[in-house]
Amino acid sequence: MIDEEKIKNWIVDEGLFREKKFDDNADFHYIIEFPKDNIMDVVKPKGKDFIVMACATQVSPQHLELMNTSSPKERTEFLLDLNMSINQFLVDCQLAVDQNTNLLQQYVITYQIFEDGIFKNALFDALKRVFKAKIQCVWMIEKTFGTVGTPTTTEPSNENSMFI
Q1: Which DSSP category does 21 fall into?
Q2: Structural domain range at position 33
């Protein structure tokens, strides 16, 4: 059995806890900030023997604009390269691609730890793995299509929570 209190204590002790979400499909669902200014989810789905770490990210309008100026061939090659790159992190990834324009709109990076492997070290390794895969996507967009200016806000937001 997965000990919710133990997991919550690890998250709280490290200063990551933001809020508990009430989720009909989960035994527990925490919104955390890891690292600073990056929102992630830690979820124990109902009836499952694992927890999931997840980070959903909307592609910024500025990045969409940069991607929109590229050729269809460049977009297709980018999506293939992105899939191959993310695959190296041993995470699961779901890319939401507009079928009309072939532009990446959103991506969700997830990683699961089964009950028999849940330790504090495993949890934090999983969080790092998910974050590094997420930031790899941003870097690949910028490497392929160009960079945009720095965001004007440093306030964390729930915009990349997987359930918003």
Answers
A1: P
A2: 4-160
Closest C-alpha among 2, 27, 8, 28 to residue 116: 2
Sheet containing strand 50-58, strands side by side: 17-20, 26-33, 39-45, 50-58, 104-114, 92-97
pLDDT tens digits for range 6-60: 999 999 999 999 999 999 999 999 999 999 999 999 999 999 999 999 999 999 9
* Among the listed residues 69, 110, 78, the one whose alpha carbon sits nearest the alpha carbon of residue 97: 78
pTM of the model: 0.86
Structural domains in the chain (count): 1
Residues in contact with 22: Cβ distance below 8 Å, sequence separation at least 6, in sequence order: 29
pLDDT tens profile 114-140: 999 999 999 999 999 999 999 999 999
Which CATH number does the domain housing residue 140 bear?
Answer: 3.30.1460.10
Coil, strand or helix at 151: coil
